[in-house]
Amino acid sequence: MMEKYTEQQVLDLARRAYTKGVARFEIAPGKCALLVIDMQDECVKPHWTPYWVPEATRQVPRIKKLIEHCRAKEIPVIFTVYSKTHHYLDRPRSGSSMPNRYPELDIDQSSFFVEGRVWYEIAPREDEIVIHKPSYGAFYDTPLETILKNLGKNTVIICGTLTNYCCGATARQAYERGFKVIFGSDVNSTDDPDLQEPELKMLRGGFAKVMTAEEIMRLL
């Protein structure tokens, strides 16, 4: 006879997955690539834009350490930026109507997210790839999946900003494409600290192995 579960039992199961769950997949360092998501001037340069993420600025030293660790281990580092691509014709149609574009602000935003320049303290090397993406997730209308497959990588380590937008969307897209996902709990940041842990819970429960930067570096 099929076992019957009470409402409290299924709630406890869900909560345990969100708060204490650990993805049960093995990680081979040689199969990993580090994705540095949108650590660009608009998000990291203090006070420049309304899209500045103060926590992203504070996390730069930790992200830089992770980048340098991966370089030393010959793990590819791939950067993404949100920039002016294809005359803005590759955007989701409703994107510009979203509240997070802050239409109520009486400022000229035409110079934001045009060049897509990675913050100078973690600038890419000449031999590292920078993907210019048109939306949140790094796999949407970009060659990232092909690049990873050509590199022979099946695992992505995600750091950057924003946890609950571009980083989280990239984690979900990677998962759905069959990649193993490692998500840095203290090297991903959001514009509202209250939303950091809820997003980590979602990713931990169903999409990624959530780890600190130190844990990731020890693993590698």
Blueprint of the fold:
Blueprint: H1 7-20, E1 32-37, H2 41-44, H3 54-72, E2 77-82, E3 129-133, H4 144-151, E4 155-161, H5 163-176, E5 180-189, H6 196-206, E6 209-211, H7 213-219
Parallel strand pairs: 1-2, 1-4, 2-3, 4-5, 5-6
Task: Describe the structure in your own words.
By secondary structure, the chain is an alpha/beta fold. The protein has one domain: Isochorismatase-like (Rossmann fold, 3-Layer(aba) Sandwich), CATH 3.40.50.850. Helices cover 35% and strands 17% of the residues. It has a 6-stranded parallel beta sheet with strand order 3-2-1-4-5-6. Helix 5 packs parallel to helix 6 (196-206). The model has no long low-confidence stretch (mean pLDDT 97).
Poorly predicted segments = none
Task: Write down how many β-strands occur, each being a DSSP E stretch of 2 or more residues.
Answer: 6
Shape: globular
Strand order of the largest sheet: 3-2-1-4-5-6
Count of all domains: 1
Number of helices: 7
What is the CATH topology classification name? Answer: Rossmann fold
Radius of gyration: 18 Å
Instruction: Bin the strand percentage.
Output: 15-25%
Alpha-carbon distance between the termini?
Answer: 45 Å
Helicity range of the residues?
25-40%
Order of helices and strands: HEHHEEHEHEHEH
CATH class: Alpha Beta
Largest β sheet strand count, sense and barrel closure: 6 strands, parallel
Mean pLDDT over the residues: 97
Q: Give the CATH superfamily.
A: Isochorismatase-like
Regarding quaternary structure, what we see is single chain
For the record, the CATH architecture stands as 3-Layer(aba) Sandwich
Task: Output the structural class.
Answer: alpha/beta
